[in-house]
Amino acid sequence: MNDTTVNDTICPRCDAENVRVLTTSPVPGRWTMYVCDTCIYSWRSTEPRSATDPLAYPAEFKIDPADIPSIPAIPTVPPRRR
Amino acid sequence: MAYADLREFLATLDRDGQLLRYSDPVNPEPDLAAAARATANLTDRGPALLFDDINGYEPGKGRVALNTVGSWPNHALMLGLDKNTTVKDQFFEFAGRWDAFPGPIERRDDAPWQEVTLTEGIDLFQLLPLFRLNSYDVGCYIDKAAVISRDPDDPDNFGKQNVGIYRIQVKDKDRLGIQPLAAHDIGLHLQRAEERGENLPVAIALGNEPVITTVAGMPLAYDQSEYEMAAAIQGAPYRITKAPVTGFDVPWGSEVVIEGEIIAGEREIEGPFGEFTGHYSGARRQPVIKIHRVMHRRNPIFEHLYLGMPWTEMDYTLALNTSVLLYRQLKAEFPEVAAVNAMYTQGLLGIISVKQRFGGFAKAVGMRAMTVPHGLAYCKVIILVDEDVDPFNLAQVMWALSVHYHPLHDTVTIPNLSVLALDPSSDPAGITHKVVLDATTPVAPEERGHYSQVVGNPEGTADWENIIKGLLK
């Protein structure tokens, strides 16, 4: 798969349409990296479909954007000192 | 033997036949991680790997070193020992050097990483061939860098300055996610910074000689300096240089030094990441680092660590520092402890050899291991063997378990103890039963079994071991 056919609009992991180009290869034209600004998943255009294609991404690793705010914070933020 | 930097260590590995240079073109994924995984799968005497033609980078410019300490010969060379030194001998050498703590430090102003400085337009992906390690990691990680921070309530205290290794997700060109757990020293630094309403400055040093990496993974006391421990372990002063923005001490020889700060009060989704338990970690909302400055050598080597299903390089780098720590803590109270092998999944399982003073003694030593600081998160399964059983020789340990251990008398199960939450068997996460399996020979007043007629070595066996060893060389 090359840059012209890889998915660059839908996050393979959370299906959000909140994807942008993260960076491109130092040697131009070799690859593009994308990142999802909803779940911070990133992928490279040269990776296998299981990493780049929402339909091929395995169900057990998918997440729902609606669940993100309730994911536990580790470590928790302590209260400010008075 | 002290190595000035990663390059000097790689040169030594090369001279000893423990470095494999791979100059054919490779893809960042999945080639690099697969090669490291394959090396660990094949042998425990394998080489470090050095790649210098990675798709997307100019040949010779984007370089990746993997598995640098990922075998027993490489671990021995790290300590300046002959590469054929046995694990048991490496253990006692490591334990002996620990006694030299605190060792001296050497301050220098002229670090090689001062060669190039970036303060604007920072893009880590242009500088380093970052790549995904395991298929369902959320992105690219940095997992072998020394992260340096100071206690915001006591910023001039050198001992409280922490050097640790934490998983770092590269979230953007100049933005990172980090996992500073509350129990870690950096977790305490972050807690104090956030209580003060301040960001926590950090320096991140990538590509180091192997001793500081090993020491950074050691669970030292809060006010013990990792640099002074590195000096003790390498038997020479440890060379450090001040990073310009934070003022923190970083290794002189690093390939790359990043300075930035953990943003107070911010938590953002991080993970999953394939962890040392052989399972993915799941996702959590974790702190975020904003990068302000990057300094580096020209054409830096990106040293990275593959981890996943044990054994991987991480198991070698943590094997002896975990085992020796437990050994020292147990030996202080029980001089009868002969050796400790706690190198299985960072000490989730450990083997202790001990001379029993009286019946039930070994079981008490096993339970004590669970209550030393490291044991609170590990030591889920502790196997006790006699003092003449080598805990690093699993054939001997399995023999002891098969003939000395009696399931009715020699199993001690302690319910609902603490364990690291990453243990996938813990339920709820962080809580587990723990077990002592006593495979020592029963002694009075616990007299049971039939152990009086042990088959010893034929006379002269020790001499013949030396003769045959010599002939095999």
TrEMBL record, chain A:
Pfam families for the chain: EcdD_BsdD_detox
Record organism: Actinoallomurus iriomotensis
Descriptive protein name: Phenolic acid decarboxylase subunit D
Protein origin, superkingdom: Bacteria
Automatic annotation (TrEMBL), chain B:
3-octaprenyl-4-hydroxybenzoate carboxy-lyase-like N-terminal domain mapped to chain residues: 10-89
Biological process annotations from GO: ubiquinone biosynthetic process
A Pfam family recorded for this sequence: UbiD_N
Annotated GO MF terms: 4-hydroxy-3-polyprenylbenzoate decarboxylase activity
Domain 3-octaprenyl-4-hydroxybenzoate carboxy-lyase-like Rift-related: 108-310
Domain of life: Bacteria
Coiled coil region boundaries: none
Domain 3-octaprenyl-4-hydroxybenzoate carboxy-lyase-like C-terminal: 317-439
Gene Ontology terms: cellular component: cytosol
InterPro entries: PAD_UbiD-like, UbiD, UbiD-like_C, UbiD-like_N, UbiD_Rift_dom
Family: Belongs to the UbiD family.
Protein's recorded name: Phenolic acid decarboxylase
Native source organism of the sequence: Actinoallomurus iriomotensis
